User: Which sequence fits this backbone?
């Protein structure tokens, strides 16, 4: 008996160490990725780039033209406008997709008859699982011509429809299912007793849904918005199909072409070399920094806003 | 018993699908009295209470027969306005359920939904309701603090204040002390004693001692039927029905 006990506890130890090794391998990936991108991305700033000279960090972070110079060969890469574009587009995307997503969630969770709610839930899940390139195709094939016509009828010029608006539409289409799914779950988890208390006070069902249900689900709803922001900041393929890949900016007009960190990173990556290739890794650092900072900021706001009365 | 009936039910029956929850209930609720509804779990006392402000409307497949009169007017039917009804018949729930907002906003919630926006008016309403609920002195310096940080007993008094802010005529209480400790329970019972000067109170309770302590009238429910109704002193001293006697002497429940 004693022998089998010992071997059992040995198995526990072995399995335990095995799990730890696996966990260490998995978490070391983040370190490997960050280190690799950082080392590659820092090269344009510290080497002389085959005689072109090194890229000025301050200019890289603030300038408003991506690659300034004759024959497109220089070290004058400015990503300042790209950072602003990226944040502006993420902001517009949330502005558009957040109300639609949350109200859809409210409808599914509280208003729709059960069979309809079940059907809509399935549709939302399907939408959330569509690959982003397909959203990009819808953007190219459907939104671009429509936006081109719209811009023309309003007297604006647009780069064949490639624009801030097209980018925001495509990203919103991708974000709405995420926001809806997350918000719907947290709305369904709201304590019914709170809603009953509101109704018992003579509030209408509509007042109750907007003033109590959404308030009580606030924290979860905000998490959905954070996920959506993450997706808008990180999406590359669909965005590069509809943004127009502008080389200067920032672009605030809805019909102007634009460029985000991801679309600039992707544009022509495989057809270039030298500094124009290396600088994409610098954009990779920039993207990670922007996403991390935004995530920290939003989570900070979420704690501030979400926990006041919980 | 010639007294002023606020609420009266006539042959009230209620079914959830196939299940009959209430059968032929004729029960008057008298003005400025505390009426206790007692009986074992599942006897229909909470269901009856929720008929009075039509909270059963929220449940699917509920069929109601008979009449409920509030101040002589039917609460169900085409001419009945459920919003008006709930403004006049407030409710306090079993578990304290303050909204996730400040103490002030909790009490001001009901009046605000009726369109009252003036800050001075709201402040007056909130202060009055909190005083009536014997909570004002404890919270007057932290009205903007979260209501969910109050103790359970304070939360329940806040819920009472929230209901009182609507200046209802009747206050329905569904086992309001079942989630509270003895001291908090005692405070709520003292409060009910005070409140009946201005309000009519209907309280569902599992505790016969509580019914005996605080109520003027008692109604004993069993399996969806009203077995006995009368003055609390009579019910507890001389129950007419054997089942009532068996229940209040603790032979089942």
Assistant:
């Amino acid at each position: 008996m004693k022998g089998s006990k010992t071997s059992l506890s040995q198995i526990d130890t072995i399995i335990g160490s095995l799990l730890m090794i696996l966990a260490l391998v998995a978490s070391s990936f983040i370190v490997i990725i960050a280190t690799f991108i950082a080392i590659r991305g820092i090269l344009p700033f510290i080497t002389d780039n085959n005689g072109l000279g090194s890229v000025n960090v301050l200019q890289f972070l603030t300038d408003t033209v991506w690659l300034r110079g004759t024959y497109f060969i220089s070290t004058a890469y400015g990503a300042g406008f790209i950072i602003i574009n990226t944040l502006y587009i993420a902001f517009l995307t949330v502005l558009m997709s957040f109300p639609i997503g949350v109200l859809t969630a409210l409808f599914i969770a509280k208003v729709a008859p059960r069979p309809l709610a079940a059907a809509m839930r399935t549709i939302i899940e399907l939408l959330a699982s569509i690959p982003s390139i397909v959203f990009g195709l819808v953007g190219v094939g459907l939104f671009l011509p429509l936006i081109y016509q719209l811009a023309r009828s309003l007297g604006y010029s647009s780069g064949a429809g490639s624009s801030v608006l097209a980018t925001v539409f495509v990203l919103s289409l991708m974000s709405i299912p995420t926001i809806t799914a997350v918000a719907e779950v947290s709305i369904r988890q709201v304590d019914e007793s709170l809603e009953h208390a509101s109704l018992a006070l003579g509030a209408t069902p509509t007042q109750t849904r907007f003033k109590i249900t959404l308030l009580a689900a606030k924290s979860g709803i905000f998490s959905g918005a954070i996920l959506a922001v993450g997706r808008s900041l990180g999406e590359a393929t669909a965005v590069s199909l509809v943004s127009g890949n502008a080389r200067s900016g920032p672009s605030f007009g809805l019909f102007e072409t634009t460029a985000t960190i991801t679309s600039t990173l992707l544009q022509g990556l495989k057809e270039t070399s030298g500094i124009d290739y290396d600088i994409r890794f610098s954009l990779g650092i920039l993207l990670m920094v922007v996403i991390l900072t935004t995530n920290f900021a939003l989570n900070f706001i979420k704690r501030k806003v979400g926990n006041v009365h919980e | 018993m010639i007294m002023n009936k606020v609420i009266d039910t006539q042959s009230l029956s209620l079914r959830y699908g196939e299940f009959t929850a209430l059968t032929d209930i004729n029960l008057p609720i008298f003005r400025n009295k505390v009426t206790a509804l007692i009986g074992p779990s599942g006897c229909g006392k909470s269901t009856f209470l929720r008929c009075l402000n039509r909270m059963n409307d929220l449940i699917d497949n509920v069929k109601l027969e008979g009449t409920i009169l509030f101040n002589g007017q039917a609460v169900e039917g085409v001419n009945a306005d459920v919003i008006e009804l709930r403004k006049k018949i407030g409710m306090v729930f079993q578990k304290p359920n303050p909204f996730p907002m400040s103490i002030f906003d909790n009490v001001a919630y009901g009046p605000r939904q009726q369109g009252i926006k003036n800050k001075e008016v709201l402040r007056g309403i909130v202060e009055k309701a909190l005083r009536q609920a014997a909570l004002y002195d404890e919270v007057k310096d932290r009205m903007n603090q979260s209501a969910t940080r109050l103790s359970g007993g304070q939360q329940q008094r806040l819920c009472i204040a929230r209901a009182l802010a609507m200046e209802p005529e009747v206050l329905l209480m569904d086992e309001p002390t079942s989630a509270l400790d003895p001291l908090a329970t005692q405070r709520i019972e003292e409060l009910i004693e005070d409140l009946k000067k201005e309000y009519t109170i209907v309280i569902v309770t599992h505790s016969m001692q509580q019914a005996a302590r605080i109520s003027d009238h008692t109604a004993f429910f069993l399996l969806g039927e009203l077995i006995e109704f009368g003055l609390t002193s009579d019910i507890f001293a001389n129950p007419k029905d054997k089942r009532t006697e068996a229940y209040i002497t603790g032979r089942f429940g």
About this structure: The first strand of chain A starts at residue 66 and ends at 68. Chain A touches chain B at residues 191, 193-194, 196-204, 207, 211-212, 215-216, 218, 308-310 (CB under 8 Å). Chain A has twelve helices and two strands. The mean pLDDT of chain A is 92.
